């Protein structure tokens, strides 16, 4: 069973390094883009901020874009939009993490299966040929146990990688949630100000 475990380890390593590359700040929440979007929204240039987010396909840009597209709506609707858009981006960030969990789960099981099959082979040989040399039996048992050790090693390494990636994802999710809340609140203030200015203009016209 060492070959299937080896394949599982390659699959787990591929997932880990692919996710590690994509879960960099520049690929999720580019600092320069954050500063520009904040500055434009704070200045009331909502449409310019929207155009800016359309130039990027990062999770942060997609989240901000979906909120900015509804910038003129009421606060409850903006909040709901932010929550729905946030869920979509969380799903994107967590993509393939389930596959890494599968590697963690099946590697020790395949190792255990390899050990069981190896022990069956050893005892079958004893049944056919007698006890024989203790060294021969020890060698067979050692080879059988090696499968379990290999499977456990792969699972442990994959688990460490999973925890590392999960920590990054949690950090990004928390940061994006704060950015979304701040944007929604800022847009609500801008909408209230625009509504107040409109009412003032109408009163003056009367």
Structural summary, described in words:
With 206 residues, the protein is an all-alpha fold. The protein has one domain. Helix 5 runs antiparallel to helix 6 and helix 7 runs antiparallel to helix 8.
Based on the model shown, name its key terms.
about 210 residues, 8 helices, about 0% strand, rod-shaped
Architecture blueprint of SSEs:
Elements: H1 2-22, H2 25-28, H3 31-42, H4 46-53, H5 59-68, H6 75-93, H7 97-129, H8 134-205
What's a quick, concise take on this entry?
This protein is mainly α. Helix content is 87%, strand content 0%.
Low-confidence stretches: none
Which series of helices and strands comes N to C? Answer: HHHHHHHH
**End-to-end gap:** 86 Å
> What is the general shape?
rod-shaped
Assembly type = single chain
Calculate the mean pLDDT score and round it. Answer: 88
Helix content: over 70%
Cα Rg: 28 Å
- Largest sheet at a glance? none
User: How many β strands by DSSP?
Assistant: 0
